[in-house]
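Re: that chain you flagged

S.,

Sorry for the slow reply, it's been a week of failed gels. I finally had a moment to sit down with the sequence you sent. For the record, here it is as I used it:
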Amino acid sequence: MKLKCKKCGNEEDFFIIEKFSGVGELCVDADGELTNYNLGAYDDADYKLKSVYYYCCNCGSKVGKIPKEKRYWNWGYDMKKHLVIKYFDTYPENKFYFESQEEAENFIKEKEKNNTGYLTTYEYRGEVILNPYQQTK
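Prediction finished late last night. Pasting the structure tokens below so you have them in one place:
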């Protein structure tokens, strides 16, 4: 389904309305500014759609209904992944997602072969369930 706003003609940017809650820790620097070490800050938040519609980012109009297969509560089972976190010193720097524990462990073994010993480590963190809007690149 290709979205297009009937009111203003926008074909690029749309939003959904969610309610989320939870507790997270955000890293800040010495000036109190957010740092880039907050990759997983919202991973444990609970998400729930407040509306089953897409809305236009330009004019706010209701554009179309979100298909059932794209609504959060139907995603959990298909979104199980195995998580590996890359650390620089003690700071989480990146996340990698795999279909199996074996794939994740093989990834770590390959990275350890090329390890320069310069404060970079990889840790397998187990199976996680992603929310549907989290990218896994």
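What I noticed first: The longest helix spans residues 101-113.

Talk soon,
D.
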